[in-house]
Amino acid sequence: MRQPCGQPPHPPPATWQHGGVTAATHSSLFPQVPESADAVLDGLDPEQREVATALHGPVCVLAGAGTGKTRAITHRIAYGVRAGILQPASVLAVTFTNRAAGEMRGRLRQLGAGGVQARTFHSAALRQLQYFWPKAVGGEMPRLLERKIQLVAEAAARCRIRLDRNELRDVTGEIEWAKVTQTVPADYPAAVAKSLRDAPRDPAEISQVYAMYEQLKRDRSVIDFEDVLLLTVGILQDRHDIADHVRRQYQHFVVDEYQDVSPLQQRLLDLWLGDRESLCVVGDASQTIYSFTGATPDHLLNFRTRHPGATVVKLVRDYRSTPQVVHLANGLLGQARGRAAEHRLELISQREPGPEPSYVEYADEPAEAEGTARRIRELIDAGVPAGEIAVLYRINAQSEVYEQALADAGVPYQLRGAERFFERQEVREAGIALRGAARAGGNDALLDDVEDLPSQVRAVLSTKGWTTEPPAGSGAVRDRWESLAALVRLAEDFVRARPQATLADLVAELDERAAAQHAPTVQGVTLASLHSAKGLEWDAVFLVGLTEGMMPITYAKTDEQVEEERRLLYVGVTRARLHLSLSWALSRAPGGRASRRPTRFLNGIRPGSAAAGPRTAGGAGGVERGGGRRKRRGPVLCRVCGKTLTDAGEMKLMRCEDCPSDMDEALYERLREWRSVQAKDLGQPAYCVFTDKTLMAIAEAVPGDEAELAGISGVGGRKLDRFGADVLAICAGEEPGEADEED
């Protein structure tokens, strides 16, 4: 078969195209360690394999949501280690949260590359600071301030500036932003004005509080988390011998979520690297949602400018979400503006079709919460685990009404952002009890007449509050039971993967997971803010409170702030694997005036709404290739009766569903046969080439040139480049490829 131009060669059988591909984001809990370096590459798709084998020189991975970026970079590290190209101790992988770093360590351990350092920027810098402080500064390192908000409150009081609790939190955030952007107190007002930042108080007052806060830290010999980075940067800049020591230790760097680096973190990374280019960065500008903390996608977008010889790979095969969810996500970004939008990635779902996203309007917020809880109850009754459902909102203050509604519906839930799983008291107590039972072995009366491992765990944890049936209602008792139930399920999964495992083996596994912060799933509906949901995924996601003033949030004033709100909604949409619900309430309280409007971001997407702004073309998967820009499109009118179309399927056909069709049936069948061959060649579902509606629209319009073909909804610049010649040949009654052969 003819290989499409620009497509990577087919991998050998038994890999991703032939049913051997493993899920990019929803993998087995206890996979077998690959037997060899080559086995590490098994199951990777062509673009992921491109990442895994690009071990030299600067590498930039542009990875869309759900495309398996963590999988790609952990397999890259593991392949390099297992092939003897990278030494485990010489690799430093950095990310932004302890959870992400723990997940990376867990995956590397499962791939046989357990000696690799995977840390947050702060954790890596703190280790270096503690080690080099006696040599670089002398004496004992200052104490690390765990919570700066109390010291900020004291600084404000000394400046005779009154701050309420919310203002105190906001001013603390401003001080953090100033430090990661390397702004000193005296320069803060000018920096705020230059960045168009909306300061929570008079910038001169914040500058005053900031200066007093720094003075109090010096007086008490304490440092905060931002100081950890600043001091490490200072030492590496001033002491070339120490910088050389660090560079001898770490020869290869991997940075995850690179769109979130701050100027200070980028400065630290530059000092770690020196004049070398042994760097791999991974990110997605469309998921930049933390600019308020100083994060900027500029370093990701400028990577090829700074490293002209870089290998750039795009991951756009979405293994997480159904085509329906992906279509909505692509539609959201299609309306985006700004520099990040120009580099957006158009995702291609690799999953079977699923239900259409639902758009639900409620009279008021309590009705929205009750309706959401009712629909969640229906999903659970239909077999969807509670732990695979999430309710996501813009701000944490929205959670209370959903907590109440879920409790009333008898649905267990957990609030995202609570303490880490292995630090919960009941989990620590359970670990002690299991360790004691493992040591006692057959001498523990609890284990009399209990043979298999899960039964042993149930017997031990029954003394700590676990029961076969969950307690009624919610609250602390239910939370404790859910934690213990998660350990029971972990034991059941563990013994399925290792049938001969003992209680001592399970305890060792728990210790390793605790060290890596690799927590099991707690079975309760997750309630979380959109920001805290980043990096997570569920089978069913409910996006609630989607009204103007909340999405985008009312204080998003500038175009860039509004675009970041759009990206935040995009992150929420792409958390869903199968079921997605978007809802809003017309008033806050029952009986209130219905003055609210659904978010503008759904205009032209939700049924019955007016079309929205311009779209820009996304990149294709694979190694970097150029892309074009789509034309601005106005309202789509039915070509038969002239009515404005809002339904996505009707917009593709360019006519109302009820209006008469003049489709060439024979042409439609030839297009379907051609699509089947293309899909088989590409190893993708047929709808990834063109949907049925798009083929129907082509068969009705019978385009005679590229301009006419490009005017059909569903034929973007990327598909026009890839398939346009074949489609036009079929429409002209020729065999696809004939024109190429004559040329």
Beta-strand proportion: 5-15%
Number of strands: 17
State the share of residues found in helices, binned by percent: 40-55%
Strand order of the largest sheet: 3-2-6-7-1-8-17
What overall geometry do the principal axes of the alpha carbons give?
globular
Nearest-angstrom radius of gyration? 28 Å
Whole-Å distance between the termini?
A: 19 Å
Q: Give a quick account of the main beta sheet: strands, pairing sense, barrel closure.
A: 7 strands, mixed
| Structural class label | alpha/beta
Average pLDDT works out at: 82
**Count of helical regions:** 29
The unreliable regions are 1-27, 613-634, 739-743
Write a compact overview of the structure shown:
With 743 residues, this protein is of the alpha/beta class.
Description:
- There is one protein chain.
- With 743 residues, this protein is an alpha/beta fold.
- Helices cover 44% and strands 10% of the residues.
- The protein is built from 29 helices and 17 strands.
- The strands form 4 sheets. It has a 7-stranded mixed β-sheet, with helices on both faces.
- Strand 6, helix 12 (263-273) and strand 7 form a beta-alpha-beta unit.
- Helix 10 packs across helix 11 and helix 20 (453-461) runs antiparallel to helix 21.
- The longest helix has 22 residues, at 476-497.
- 42% of the residues are buried.
- The model is unreliable at 1-27, 613-634 and 739-743 (pLDDT under 50).
